[in-house]
Amino acid sequence: MIEDLIRGSLDHCVKCTICESYCPVSRATPLFPGPKYVGPQAERFRTGGISPDDSLDYCSGCGICTHVCPQGVKIAEINARARRTLKERNGIPLRDKIIARPTVGARLATPVAPIANWTLRNKAVRTAVEKAVKVHRRAPLPVFAGRTFQRWARKHESPPLERTVVYFHGCSTNYFEPDLGAKTVAVLEHNGFNVIVPEGQGCCGLPLQSNGLFDDATAYVKRLVSTLVPYARKSYDIVATSTSCGLMLKREAHEILGIEDDDLTTVSEHMYDICEWLADLHERGELKTDFGPLAMRVPYHAPCQQRGHGIGTPALELLRLIPELEATDSNRECCGIAGTYGLKKEKYDIAMEVGRPLFEDITAAAPELSVCDSETCRWQIEHGTKIDSVHPIELLHRSYGLD
Amino acid sequence: MRDVLVVGTGLSGLVAGLRCQEAGLSVTVVAKGVGSTHLAPGTIDVLGYDPELVEDPIEALPAFIQRNPQHPYAAIGATTMRDALAWFMQRFVGYRYAGGDGNLMLPTAIGAAKPSALVPETMAAGDLRNGGRIVFVGLRQLKDFWPAFAAQNTSAVKLPSEAGVTARAIQIEAQTGGEADVNGLAFARLFDDARFRRAVITQVSAQLEDDEVVAFPAVLGVQRPHEVWSELQDAFERPVFEVPSLPPSVPGMRLYDVLRTQFERAGGRTILGAEAVGAETDGSRVTAVQVSSAARVKPHPAKQFILASGGFGSGAVTMDSSWQVKEEIFGLHVAGVPAEAEERFGPHYFDEHPMGRAGIRVDESLRPLDAEGNRSYANVAVVGASLGGAAAWKEKSGDGISLSSGYRAAGVVIEESK
């Protein structure tokens, strides 16, 4: 089935080069010859797990190629699956195994957050880490909050409300940005929704997948699906603030990992990016529009994984409901980080070069903050601009006067 | 609910969407990916051959329409074409389009003369009608443009005016920064950089001969083409022009960027990575188009729908091995398909093929017609490459059909929305 999807789409490639025109990585480095070359072209030579060369490793997996392809070729999916084979052959470095499991570290670090944060920001430590496991010393790592969103949610008492929605918060909200989770709940409650936060939400497996660890990724995503599926079966909508993890459950678990599973399909069908879901609510005339003015100009960057949803830019449409707020689309391809790509010693400079046009635009506009739907992108944009970057929900929350 | 849903973001979809949005309608454009603009040379070819070379497409159009009542131009009309061309030219400020004085005859990358009604100003000096001397400049790492090939063939071009063209080629070294596969876009980005331009100017200036105009591959900047082109003309003290080459088409990308930026600035919404797969109907009206994106197919309701999804080339119209021809979204009747077991294609590539004019037939409002000639839907308009009755590749009419049908469909929708 998955092979049909990949092979079937491959034959639609007309070699038009549109994917290469938009690839942010091949533009930044000669080490990556472009999505058409490593994708539809090289794929024809990949039999028995042999790849023509190793340049595929420099694909960041951003997915822009699939997004812009006018023929519907699953270029990014072809490349992700080929990378898995490549990595199996070449061996997966210890570094990739570590950064692909952010929750393991986060669980250990949360109780000792101040020490962990100090350690990860200590130059000597980072230099040693770079030497030992090849995580670049300047790469943007998140800050442990020291408390989890799950813990907040257990204590939180929802007011009695008529309608119900389920919140898939993802690891980053749980360990690094629990405030975003609380604000999301507040925005949803403000709109009359009782919010269910299923307990024990684990990692969706996306970092494992993008590092070629498909078996582990499959186990992770199946475990997560079993946590969410009871709610999907009751026909509750599930909203995600982590746009990349939402996409993993909507599409990538099936189209990249190749999982055929009724439970996954049920969860996929009920999964929404939070901004997609709120914009739909607005389309039906059901979103509260008692927005207070926010006199600001903010650049908005639609991350690659958000574009992978194929839903346009609902965040911009929501932000434009806020009086006096002027939100502009960055119209830049990518910030460079691509999840864990930009953390790697040999890829950090490439990732920074990929993000440079975006960083320059934001720095030149000198806004109070910038807006982006994806956490790793926000950390990278902050790293590249020294200007705070927030999820769109933060501005909706502020504009509703819920602060 | 949006006023208008446009399927496709090639030339016809961009034009239709922009015109509707600027008239105050709310427009959503859904598209599987980026459109055909990136593959086309960025010129507007209206009518080049009928079957002999056409000198002035606007003048020739009324007689052409009379002889070809099934052609999309017959539904659109010569007046609308004139209006559409004028509208199109007004869209481009700074980086402008030139034309209006008959077909320009521009050399292609293989040195053939191609008739175009409108061309980017950066190509206009390549007009071969008055003859002259041309030097084709090649950039050594750019494998998609061979100046000696272009020069030799251009020198052999036979023109009605019998004006002579002589051409030669030079090749320059241009440092690219080391991309593995250097295409035209990579060079266009380099030309946006003043330092790179200075290096090119130095190398080319030293090799120019008297009275030569200078031809470059169409890679003279993607962000600021007008600035790049002007600077080169000033430096060489003579006309400079661009020659379109293989995709990715830089002039096509400029065209796309200009129209899409204006569309979004006017408040239009574009959803890429969203494939229209079907429609919901209520009698003679379409109520929604079903759009497939990650995880789900979602209906996009609208009052009016514009089908700008391309023809066979983009998969908007398909034919399977059992002869089944299908327009994929609305299931519209595809006219002009040879009956089963009859010949579909002639034996030679450049033949007029029986299959060649298959497509959607429309009335004067561009509403699709069924096999009996009745309107299939009252609120669907068909534009661009899906339209039947044309041999666009032979007539050199593809851009003209896309532009004028997109323009016309918007006019109909705007009028009906009042």
Concise description?
The complex is a heterodimer of chains A (403) and B (418). By secondary structure, chain A is α/β, with parallel strands linked by helices.
Largest sheet entry of chain A: 4 strands, parallel
| Number of strand elements of chain B | 17
Q: Give the proportion of residues in helices of chain B.
A: 25-40%
Estimated helix fraction of chain A: 40-55%
With strands numbered from the N-terminus, the spatial order across the biggest sheet of chain A is: 2-1-3-4
Question: Helix/strand-derived class of chain B?
Answer: alpha/beta
Mean pLDDT of chain B: 94
User: Oligomerization state of this entry?
Assistant: heterodimer
Radius of gyration of chain A: 20 Å
Low-confidence runs of chain B: none
Beta-strand share of residues of chain B: 15-25%
Structural category of chain A:
alpha/beta
Task: Give me the strand/helix succession of chain B.
Answer: EHEHHHEEEHEHHEHEHEEEEEEEEEHH
Measured distance between first and last alpha carbons of chain A: 48 Å
- Uncertain regions of chain A: pLDDT < 50 for 5+ in a row? none
What percentage of the residues of chain A does DSSP assign to strands (E)? 5-15%
Largest sheet of chain B: 7 strands, mixed
* CATH C-level name of the domain at 287-399 in chain A: Alpha Beta
First-last Cα distance of chain B? 17 Å
Description of the molecule:
The complex is a heterodimer of chains A (403) and B (418). By secondary structure, chain A is an alpha/beta fold. Among the domains of chain A are: 2-90, Fumarate Reductase Iron-sulfur Protein, Chain B, domain 2 (Orthogonal Bundle), CATH 1.10.1060; 287-399, Rossmann fold (3-Layer(aba) Sandwich). Chain A has 23 helices and eight strands. Chain A has helices at 2-10, 18-22, 24-28, 35-43, 64-68, 75-90, 94-99, 102-109, 113-120, 123-133, 149-155, 170-175, 178-190, 206-210, 214-233, 243-255, 262-270, 274-283, 304-307, 314-319, 348-365, 375-385, 392-399, and strands at residues 163-168, 193-196, 238-240, 271-273, 296-301, 325-329, 370-372, 389-390. In chain A, the strands form two sheets. Chain A has a four-stranded parallel beta sheet, with helices on both faces. Chain A has a four-stranded parallel beta sheet with strand order 6-5-7-8. The mean pLDDT of chain A is 93. Chain B has 418 residues and is α/β, with parallel strands linked by helices. Chain B folds into two domains: 2-90 and 254-417, 3-Layer(bba) Sandwich (FAD/NAD(P)-binding domain), CATH 3.50.50; 124-243, Rossmann fold (3-Layer(aba) Sandwich). Helix content of chain B is 29%, strand content 24%. Chain B contains eleven helices and 17 strands. Chain B has helices at residues 11-22, 57-67, 72-76, 78-91, 147-155, 184-191, 194-205, 225-236, 250-265, 392-395, 398-417; strands spanning 2-7, 27-31, 97-107, 113-120, 132-139, 165-172, 212-217, 240-243, 269-272, 275-282, 285-293, 296-307, 317-319, 325-327, 334-335, 359-360, 380-382. In chain B, strands 1, 2, 9, 10, 11, 12 and 17 form a seven-stranded mixed beta sheet that branches. In chain B, strands 6-5-7-8 form a four-stranded parallel beta sheet, with helices on both faces. In chain B, helix 8 links the parallel strand 7 and strand 8 (240-243). The mean pLDDT of chain B is 94. The A-B interface holds A 12, 16-18, 20-22, 26-27, 30-34, 37, 55, 66-72, 247, 250-251, 268-269, 271, 283, 307-312, 317, 329 and B 1, 28, 31-36, 38-39, 177-181, 183, 185-186, 189, 247-248, 253, 264, 269-275, 292-296, 314-315.
